[in-house]
Predict the 3D structure of the following.
Amino acid sequence: MGNVAGYRKAFEEAVEYQRKWDTYRRKLALWEVGESSSRRDGAAPPKRKRGKPAPAAKPDEKQRPEPPARDFGLETLAGVLDGDILVHMHCYRADEMSLMLEFAAGYGFSIRSFHHAVEAYKIADRLAANDTAVSIWADWWGFKVEAYDGVRENAAMVTQAGARAIIHSDSATGIQRLNQEAGKALFAGRKAGVQITDEQALEWLTINPAWALGVDDRTGSLEPGKAADIVVWTGDPFSVYTQAQLVFIDGELVYERGPDSRPRSDFDLGLRDELRGAP
Amino acid sequence: MKFTTKTKLLPALLLALLAIPAPATLAAAPPAHADPLPALVIDKLILANAKIEVGDGTVIDGGSILIEDGKITRVQAGTITGIDKSATLDLQGKLVTPGLIAADTTIGLVEIGAEDSTHDDTRNNPGSIKAGYDPAPAVNADSSLISIQAIEGVTTAAVAPQGGLISGEVAWIDLLAGDHANIVAAAGVAVAANFGRSYAGSRAASLAQLREAFEDAKWYRDNQRNYERNQSRELVAHPLDLRALWPVLDRKIPLVVRAHRASDLLALIELGESLSISITIVGAAEGWKVANELAAAKITVVIQPTDNLPGSFDTLGARLDNAKLLDDAGVTVAIAHFDSHNVRNVTQEAGIAVANGLSHAAALRAITLNVAKAYGMDREYGTIAAGKVANLVVWDGPDPFELSTWAEQVWVRGHKLDMTSRQTQLRDRYMDLEVFTN
């Protein structure tokens, strides 16, 4: 619970920081129109003669209000309070996610996505009610205590409850075939009787993460006006044998499967030359 | 699946006998109301009308398997009839494979990775030669990992200690959850070692230390009395650690070494030949570079096909088609998923190997028979054949590598698993969340 005390302290500071900047901006606006910063809010603006431009106000530079010191950490949290910055939070356990949902509600912001959320299936209804997504592994579990209750059906159960699931991987090998990670989660769900469509499983990898990042108006689905981020697969994307055939990013063909099509980084040169032709 | 019987038991009682041989309950005294007539006891099971992937590449369509006392006693095309005290399960053409075998795990030794209090995988003494560390007594049959893997088709695992240059002895376990008396099928089936990173200042010095350990193991065997009389040269390890190397020197068990770099693999081939010992190599990211040498030395190699990144300077040559290139060269290739909590994903590894050139038959062999070979356990494990342990998987689809295919029923040493795990229980508890709100 020390964590939550830390969050509370930080957000209280952010509220105070936000208040200081609001005050400063108000004083600055008044100063710019030549008003005394001591004028009370809501007072009538200076009178102007009709039809003539306002006299060029010459604010006194000496009177310019001093901005508060910038603090990038608090500025970010203030952005969260203003709703300009989406919150992604690393959180595994159901009780901890529940606690943070309540915490966020108390400060009037929402959590866009929990990362890892191994126990999301225990509070899937609550996640749906809060419109909070979860970015989860297909089957990782047990590497630490918080991950002990992982189940294969997590994504399916979250989807069934009406919340947004995202299949992710922070493994350098798992990320190479995220389609298969989604496939494992899809078929595990179906086997347990949760009716997940292929389209829903695809959303775990496309529009849902785009939404979580706040870029779903630009990518995440094949629609006119969106970025041409497209994969052509050699078969069913949820088959273990299927591979990416063509990959476009922003309309640019960045990968085409074929002999010697494996990307070669600077690091590879002279060290991995023999891998030319490797898949 | 449909049961028929050759006894006159009531169907309900019959199902009880067949469906719940959880090992722990079998060991318990029979309930008072159990039928006393021995003639009614069913102790043989026939799996009939199965598509049997034997595990050595052959397939028997419409075949039958007879299981007695935890062993496979007969496998044939067509039906098996005339067996007393037997029940027959009609598999209706479903696919049966040998139970999958997981290489180089810590199942039963590590419950939670980042929780040290749950670790029994390393002997914590100074010194890099820990050959005498036998983890078998530490294997926990109550570990949640066991049924989580078993209900997805993994019936057997090599449980290997970690750490040091020579880590200790490998235990061979059948994934019988809760059966403390029987989970370890065999202890000391191999000796596990690590080579590639330096334990003695340089990898060459580490190699020399490995050689010294075997030299001292020999010397100690020939000079035990001198040792007891304090008339011994200084030995590189405790006598119990040297003693553990004797069966390796006698070629009774293999030395199973984790190594990746091509030069290290060649060094191990040379070590094996000079000591005349049998070596299995685990990891072998650069195995393809020395595939011909590995084949000539008849070394079994255990790889993880998805290991395709240069994660260290020992694995610069890692590539997705390692399995195919090794198999093409004639190397005996086994496939593993080196995450003990998810060895169930070994079918996905096999599928990815196939997607990158390995034949389907070779990939199935790589997760059954060839893993048994890697640990010298292929006499009893790895195929569906008379005399082998009855570790069997019935699949709900035609291709066990596909992500959509699941194990429908698993038998471990003839015991029919109830196909539940801690994870299925968690899933079922939270499947209907309204239970918690109403």
About this structure: The interface with chain A takes residues 111-115, 144-145, 289, 306-311, 316-317, 319-321, 341-342, 345, 348, 351-352, 354-357, 401-404, 406, 423-424, 426-427, 430-431, 433, 437 of chain B (CB under 8 Å).
